[in-house]
Amino acid sequence: MTNTNDFRKYSYATDTSYLLESFSYSRASHAPKLKPEEDRSLKVREGSKVKSGKQLRAEQKAAFKKAVLVVSVAVISLLMVALSLHSFAQKNELTRQIQRTQTSIANATSENISLQSQLDALVSISSIDNYAVEKLHMSKVKSNQIRYISVDEFKAHRELEQQQQKQQTKSNKNN
């Protein structure tokens, strides 16, 4: 079982906020000295040298080149932003078009399934039977009208007929 005194003993031993022995009463702590602020206002200073016309033109050229460089970088940056916005807009439009196409494909698929089921209903055996009896005035087959034929007998009968035809054509040629 833990005693509350044990808990305090362990928790305050390593906590720096309770180490009062390390506090020195004799040492005075002074506030740091403030640094005087520099005057940051703009001042006009006249140079002791007078610049020649060539120097002034060279400085104007350099300033103009820097201005052209800054403007060209700004224009290129604006073009890049405009092109990225255009590509995002085009991507969104293509995404919408894909979704519309997928929706139309899904609608066509469901319509195909519906039409296929209607076709299956129309082509069922009972509907064909009803159509034959009612529209075409056909009658159902009776058992005495059904005749089964063996394939071997059919082949033998056909060969016999072919031989008879050959004999008749030979006899017709001879006459």
Largest sheet data = none
Q: Rg, please?
A: 55 Å
The counted number of beta strands is 0
Derived structural class? mainly alpha
Strand content: under 5%
Record the SSE blueprint.
Elements: H1 4-13, H2 53-122, H3 125-134, H4 151-174
Descriptive notes:
This protein is 65% helix and 0% strand. The protein has a domain of 85 residues. It is elongated, with a radius of gyration of 55 Å. The chain has 175 residues and is an all-alpha fold. The chain contains 4 helices and no strands. The mean pLDDT is 83.
Overview in brief:
This protein has helices at 4-13, 53-122, 125-134, 151-174. The protein is an all-alpha fold and 175 residues long. It has a domain at 55-139.
Can you give keywords for this protein?
single chain; 175 residues; mainly alpha
